[in-house]
């Protein structure tokens, strides 16, 4: 019975390590996704500010 109990705990440890590895991979993927989204949002913000400044200056350029 001691051997059966030992195998049971070993199986649980093995399963826990597998779940931990899967979770780590998912967290890395999520982190990469968030980083790329963050960079994309920052780039879009700069582009929007550029467009706004450009559009605000058009009437002055036309009148000159």
Automatic annotation (TrEMBL):
GO cellular component: cis-Golgi network; Golgi medial cisterna; Golgi membrane; SNARE complex
Assigned keywords, A-Z: Golgi apparatus, Membrane, Protein transport, Receptor, Transmembrane, Transmembrane helix, Transport
The keyword DNA damage is annotated on this UniProt entry: no
Membrane topology per record: Single-pass type IV membrane protein
Record flagged with keyword rRNA-binding: no
Entry GO MF terms: SNAP receptor activity
Example GO BP: endoplasmic reticulum to Golgi vesicle-mediated transport
UniProt cross-references to InterPro entries, sorted A to Z: Golgi_SNAP_su1 (IPR023601)
Protein localization: Golgi apparatus membrane
Recorded family membership: Belongs to the GOSR1 family.
UniProt xrefs under PANTHER family: GOLGI SNAP RECEPTOR COMPLEX MEMBER 1, GOS-28 SNARE- RELATED
Biological role: Involved in transport from the ER to the Golgi apparatus as well as in intra-Golgi transport. It belongs to a super-family of proteins called t-SNAREs or soluble NSF (N-ethylmaleimide-sensitive factor) attachment protein receptor. May play a protective role against hydrogen peroxide induced cytotoxicity under glutathione depleted conditions in neuronal cells by regulating the intracellular ROS levels via inhibition of p38 MAPK (MAPK11, MAPK12, MAPK13 and MAPK14). Participates in docking and fusion stage of ER to cis-Golgi transport.
Name of this chain's protein: Golgi SNAP receptor complex member 1
Organism, scientific name: Myotis myotis (Greater mouse-eared bat)
Taxonomic classification: Eukaryota, Metazoa, Chordata, Craniata, Vertebrata
